[in-house]
């Protein structure tokens, strides 16, 4: 019994003594840290996604406290509201950024972009893109092996098994940009987020000539430039046979959507404009200008395809 | 029997389909496409334009800098385009298209069958001739031969090793070359020896080609060549440059950026030696090569002497056409070859064979989980850890990958061949290697910019 008591006593005394020593040591060697860092870290989403460009939420909090000008620091996941609160806490000016959303710019679904071969290598877009063109004739399109899905920490992007193309859930997407980096084909872009998930964008990144694009994919942009002509806000540029809509200039007027002969311009969250019946006076005006700018070989398939699309509809 | 010290696998060689077929001359193609980038280094610069008339053997694209190679017209005719064309991988590449009209050769090319042994040129003149002829390593790596022969300062070549191993299953083009063009090969070796200023020359041949070994030994004895033939154990990748050096000299090449020359060895392919003979003695540039077209299901596998730029579909046609059902056409052999999506793509300087698989052979096995059995580790001839490398690649841990000596990988595919779980090891290893090489290059460029 005495042995037991003695043991308990000795250990307790030892424990208390060590605690006292440790307390003073801790006081002596205390690292002064701004308590605001902890506070900020709690306010941040804690996903450590790297969307801010730093290694994680803690690094972001530290950077926000340290830097006087925090305009370069922005957490897309937290959003503008949270950024304002954090800036208020620090007494600094909150950086402002329009909310964005990841957009997959490929419309080459199975029916539009026929498979030319079967790939049975490693199921990774990065691997496949180093090996060869991919399962279709398009060198630019979505491969559909899901590197973006793996990169997404918010479960916001999925490869649709029916179309074989990655699709973003705009409600879940935080615009951290992980998928943008993961995509070896550089198809995914962060575009301005409109209310009700409205969007107008060119769902193609093919820089091939119109005829080549046409052969590989019926939904590709052939660079005909009709959309750029009709745009009243100067938001559309056509370069290397590819149209691009600047989401900051676009006002969602939707005129370009009806103009696109291949359906490469995608409209989301809105109804399309009613199709105007083409007046005979207006018609010759556009084709007269078009052949001068485009070789005949490229303009021709565009027209054929337009008929096809109309038939399908 | 000599062999390399670690790793390696022993796939069934499948050479019986074509190793008894003598080299036949493929009829001239009507149209050829010549890619400007068909060697390691900078793509050549086109010297012809649409509408130009060219003769067989005429220079059509010039080397861009030292690390590049000249390209010559393989046929005579008219240039119809210098434009982007689809290559074997389905990607677009700059190519010169020539439409054939007859077969008129450049006048300085000696087309007689007589074998000319005497060569009174000095080393620099030989290397210049090789450079002009656009010769590159014909085993598949397509490293410009004149670069290999230009010994950097501070190094000294002791050994010239001729690679007649052809360890890649199925392929028999080097085998047939050694059998049928042994004397040309040996004269080529003498010229290479003179260019390098070395005494020792060894031809390494895998022991599954006893007829080639006997043939070379016979010619060496009869014609008194100072070359030895080393029979090597049948083990893949015996023909890897570093493996061959280790097997013959017992020396280990340090990891990159060290080159074989740092251990005093220069390795050239057997077909390259023949091309060197033709370039130096006959003024004939590299415009044709022997290509094996083979496969279990092919009606008639063959070894064809093919002009560069010939569509691969023409070779397939000569071999009796593609078999029924799903097929896989591989540019090269099963271990290191690259599968193709466009069979109309041209034969290039590095294309030693085309292998065709059908049915079950064309499919990969189902992928299961890695059980860390370490078979890949024992199979790796470079002493790497492939199972770890692919995990690091998948996790994008490039710094750790560099520390694992990924750049030392020779992409032989032993890891993937040995994997019981059917993992796509080589695919990820290649991706990791490419990425790390890119990072190293970017770093070197940044350092250079700082200075």
Biggest contact: A-B, 17 and 17 residues
* CATH topology category name of the largest domain in chain A: Alpha-Beta Plaits
Calculate the mean pLDDT score of chain A and round it. Answer: 84
- Strand order within the widest sheet of chain A? 1-4
Characteristics of this structure?
heterodimer; A: 313 residues; alpha+beta; 3-methyladenine DNA Glycosylase II, Chain A, domain 3; Alpha-Beta Plaits; 2 domains; two-stranded antiparallel sheet; 12 helices; elongated; disordered C terminus; B: 451 residues; alpha/beta; 6-stranded mixed β-sheet; 4-stranded antiparallel β-sheet; 13 helices; 17 strands; 19% strand
What does the model show?
The complex is a heterodimer of chains A (313) and B (451). Chain A is α+β, with helices and mostly antiparallel strands and 313 residues long. Chain A folds into two domains: 36-90, 3-methyladenine DNA Glycosylase II, Chain A, domain 3 (Orthogonal Bundle), CATH 1.10.15; 100-268, Alpha-Beta Plaits. Chain A contains twelve helices and eight strands. Chain A has helices spanning 2-28, 35-43, 57-66, 79-90, 125-131, 147-151, 178-182, 210-216, 226-230, 255-259, 285-293, 296-312, and strands at 100-104, 157-160, 165-168, 188-192, 199-202, 236-239, 242-245, 265-268. Chain A has a two-stranded antiparallel ribbon with strand order 1-4. A two-stranded antiparallel sheet of chain A has the order 2-3. In chain A, strands 5-8 form a two-stranded antiparallel sheet. In chain A, β2 (157-160) and β3 form a beta hairpin. The model of chain A is unreliable at 280-313 (pLDDT under 50). Chain B has 451 residues and is α/β, with parallel strands linked by helices. In chain B, 29% of the residues lie in helices and 19% in strands. Chain B has helices at residues 123-132, 145-149, 173-180, 182-196, 210-223, 241-249, 270-282, 312-318, 375-379, 386-394, 398-403, 414-418, 425-450, and strands at residues 23-25, 31-35, 45-46, 53-54, 59-62, 71-72, 77-86, 92-100, 159-163, 200-206, 228-232, 265-269, 288-294, 302-307, 327-331, 338-339, 353-358. In chain B, strands 1-14-13-17-15-16 form a six-stranded mixed beta sheet. A four-stranded antiparallel beta sheet of chain B has the order 2-8-7-4, with no helix packed on it. In chain B, strands 11-10-9-12 form a four-stranded parallel beta sheet, sandwiched between helices. In chain B, α1 packs across α4 (182-196), α4 crosses α7 (270-282) and α10 crosses α13 (425-450). The N and C termini of chain B lie far apart (51 Å). Chains A and B meet through α5 of A and β16 and α13 of B.
């Amino acid at each position: 019994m005495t042995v037991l008591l003695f043991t308990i006593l000795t250990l307790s005394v030892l424990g208390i003594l060590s605690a006292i020593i440790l307390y003073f040591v801790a006081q002596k060697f205390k690292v002064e840290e701004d308590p605001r860092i902890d506070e900020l870290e709690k306010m941040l989403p804690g996903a450590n996604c790297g969307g801010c460009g730093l290694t994680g939420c803690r690094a972001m909090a530290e950077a926000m406290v340290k830097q006087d000008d925090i305009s370069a620091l922005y957490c897309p996941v937290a959003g503008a509201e949270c950024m304002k609160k954090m800036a208020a806490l620090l007494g600094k000016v909150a950086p402002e950024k329009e909310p964005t959303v990841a957009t997959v710019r490929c419309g080459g679904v199975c029916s539009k972009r026929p498979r030319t071969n079967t790939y049975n290598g490693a199921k990774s877009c990065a691997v496949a893109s180093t090996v060869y063109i991919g399962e279709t004739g398009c060198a630019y399109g979505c491969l559909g092996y899901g590197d973006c899905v793996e990169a997404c920490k918010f479960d916001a992007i999925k490869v649709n098994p029916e179309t074989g193309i990655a699709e973003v859930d705009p409600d879940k997407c935080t615009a951290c940009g992980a998928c943008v980096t993961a995509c070896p084909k550089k198809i995914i872009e962060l575009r301005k987020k409109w209310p009700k998930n409205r969007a107008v964008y060119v769902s193609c990144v093919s820089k091939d000539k119109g005829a080549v694009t046409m052969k590989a994919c019926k939904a590709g942009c052939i660079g005909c430039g009709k959309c750029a002509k009709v745009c009243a806000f100067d938001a559309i540029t056509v370069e290397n046979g590819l149209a691009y809509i600047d989401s900051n200039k676009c006002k969602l007027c939707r005129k370009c959507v009806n103009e696109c002969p291949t359906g490469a311009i995608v409209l989301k969250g809105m109804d399309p404009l009613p199709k105007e019946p083409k007046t005979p006076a207006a018609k010759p005006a556009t084709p007269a200008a078009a052949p001068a700018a485009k070789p005949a070989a490229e303009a021709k398939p565009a027209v054929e395809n337009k008929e096809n699309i109309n038939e399908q509809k | 029997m000599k062999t390399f010290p670690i790793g390696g696998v022993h796939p069934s060689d499948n050479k019986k389909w074509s190793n008894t077929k003598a080299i036949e001359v493929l009829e001239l193609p009507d149209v050829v496409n010549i890619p400007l980038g068909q060697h390691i280094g900078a793509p050549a610069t086109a010297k012809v334009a649409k509408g130009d008339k060219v003769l067989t053997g005429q220079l059509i694209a010039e080397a861009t800098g030292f690390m590049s190679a000249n390209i010559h017209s393989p046929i005579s005719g008219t240039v119809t385009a210098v434009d982007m064309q689809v290559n074997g991988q389905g990607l677009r590449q700059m190519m010169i298209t020539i439409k054939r009209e007859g077969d008129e050769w450049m006048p300085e090319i000696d087309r007689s069958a007589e074998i000319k042994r005497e060569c009174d040129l000095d080393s620099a003149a030989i290397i210049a001739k090789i450079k002009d002829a656009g010769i590159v390593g014909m085993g598949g790596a397509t490293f410009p031969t004149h670069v290999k022969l230009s010994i950097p300062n501070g190094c000294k070549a002791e050994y010239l090793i001729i690679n007649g191993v052809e360890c890649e299953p199925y392929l028999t083009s080097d085998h047939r070359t050694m059998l049928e063009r042994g004397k040309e090969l040996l004269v080529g070796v003498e010229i290479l020896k003179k260019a390098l200023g070395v005494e020792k020359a060894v031809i390494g041949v895998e022991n599954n080609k006893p007829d080639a070994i006997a043939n070379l030994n016979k010619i060496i004895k009869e014609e008194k060549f100072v070359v030895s033939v080393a029979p090597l154990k049948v083990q893949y990748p015996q023909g890897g440059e570093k493996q061959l050096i280790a097997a013959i000299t017992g020396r280990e090449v340090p990891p990159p950026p060290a080159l074989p020359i740092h251990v005093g060895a220069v390795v050239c392919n057997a077909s390259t030696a023949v091309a060197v003979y033709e370039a130096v003695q006959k003024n004939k540039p590299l415009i044709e090569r022997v290509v094996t077209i083979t496969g279990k299901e092919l009606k008639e596998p063959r070894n064809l002497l093919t002009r560069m730029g010939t569509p691969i579909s023409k070779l397939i046609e000569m071999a009796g056409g593609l078999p029924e059902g799903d097929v896989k056409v591989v540019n090269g052999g099963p271990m290191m070859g690259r599968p193709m999506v466009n069979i109309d793509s041209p034969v290039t300087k590095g294309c030693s064979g085309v292998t065709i698989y059908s049915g079950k052979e064309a499919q990969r096995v189902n992928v299961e989980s890695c059980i860390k059995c370490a078979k890949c580790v024992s199979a790796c001839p470079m002493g790497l850890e492939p199972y770890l490398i692919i995990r690091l690649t998948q996790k994008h841990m490039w710094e750790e990958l560099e520390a694992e000596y990924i750049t030392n990988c020779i992409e032989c595919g032993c890891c993937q061949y040995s994997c019981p779980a059917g993992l796509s090891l080589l695919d990820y290893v290649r991706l990791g290697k490419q990425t790390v090489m890119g990072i190293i290059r970017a770093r070197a460029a940044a350092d250079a910019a700082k200075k």
